[in-house]
Prior knowledge:
- By secondary structure, the protein is an alpha/beta fold.
- It has one domain (6-223): TIM Barrel (Alpha-Beta Barrel).
- Helices cover 37% and strands 16% of the residues.
- It contains 8 helices and 8 strands; from the N terminus they run H-E-H-E-H-E-E-H-E-H-E-H-E-H-E-H.
- An 8-stranded parallel sheet has the order 7-6-5-4-3-2-1-8.
- Helix 5 (141-149) crosses helix 6.
- The model has no long low-confidence stretch (mean pLDDT 93).
Amino acid sequence: MGFEALPERLAQVRSELARRAPQQVTIVAVTKGFGTDAIRAALDAGLADVGENRVQEAVQKQDELVGDKGLGVGGIRWHLIGHLQRNKARVVPGRFEMVHSLDSLELATELNRRLRAPLRVLVQVNVAGEAQKSGCAPGDAPMLARQIAALERLRLEGLMTLAPLTDDEDVQRRTFRGVRVLRDRIKEEEGIWLPTLSMGMSDDYASAVQEGATVIRLGTALFGPREGNVMP
């Protein structure tokens, strides 16, 4: 599969960000469902932040890239953006720059126990309250943030969310606004500085950045459709 259109697609995304986002926004290239050729194309286009949903798929790609002119684990800022099961926490140390999807104290504690060096993490919040999505309830987020921030090796930097699958911009923006307001509440009530808001994917990143997103996670917007319509 070729990615000749990636530079043009990336230019369109950056143009949209320049128009809508006064804040600096990091683009995470989501390569779930694509091979390592997509990662090489992202690097060639100037994107060093790469996101994977599944630990096993990420590890396979990392191992394949290890001997490829420094493009392995050390040459890419790897983000784990999908749900992390507790029994996979042992695989994370040394392989990811940031984990976006902590949603329980049990998971955070297990991950902290496995680490030998600090790891940047985000709390995933299910603001929309959708049963099929991971994430803690908004009401539980302040206490969970306080508990995670107290763990020795985890560096809590912010919140992450997924908006409902809808074209309704009002619904999208209401969801993202809810995360920003929740972040501000945690800062005020818990005294925890959370500069990162990871929210927005290919279909809704424009709404997300207008509500304060500092990280967006883009797959099809950069690489085109995946086989089998794998999201995001």
